[in-house]
Amino acid sequence: MIDLYYWTTPNGHKITMFLEEAGLPYTIHPIDIGKGDQFQPDFLRISPNNRIPAIVDHAPADGGDPISVFESGAILLYLADKTGRYIPHTLRERNEVLQWLFWQMGGLGPMAGQNHHFNAYAPERVPYAIDRYVRETARLYGVLNKQLADREFIGGDYSIADMACYPWVVPHERQGQNLAEFPALQRWFEAIAARPATIRAYEQAARINTRPSVSDEESRRILFGQDARTIK
Q: pTM for the whole thing?
């Protein structure tokens, strides 16, 4: 059994997508980040960065005590290695999938996240920042479009690289992107959206949360008012 500490963000969706694809039994523990659940001591013991998602695996492959994992990319890799699914077993193919997983973690996610912030959440419009992150998101979409020009999925077969990237493309309109300008990316996006496991994962999200995480000034303060004092 997997305990999943989750909220309805792109990084959270990555893990429900994997768990639904793999058919692993799991229990969702909602962490409402707009209310500050991420600062509760029980959650911080498994996710010291006070971010979702995180998991606890009560049946690790070594047969030992439960294992906790935080950071969405690390969780995807852990689950792929645990199940032997959605990651290639040969050296070169595995390396390609891991490169694109890290590309999402270091590029697409952070840049699209800043795009979201300055377009939707910043208290004042900062044209330079908006232009900077919309353009960088477009560049990254172009990189992914080129990778997908001659293959069905990012690493060839469906993998954790696809699960990592897809949720960050879902809000493409909010990011100022037109998928029609990226035909290979659009074809890939539509194929993943139609997968039964993807549909089930997003149905979970709709059941758990029906409101934006930033819904008032208090949730804005909780999400965007953190600094080093938050950790003490």
A: 0.95
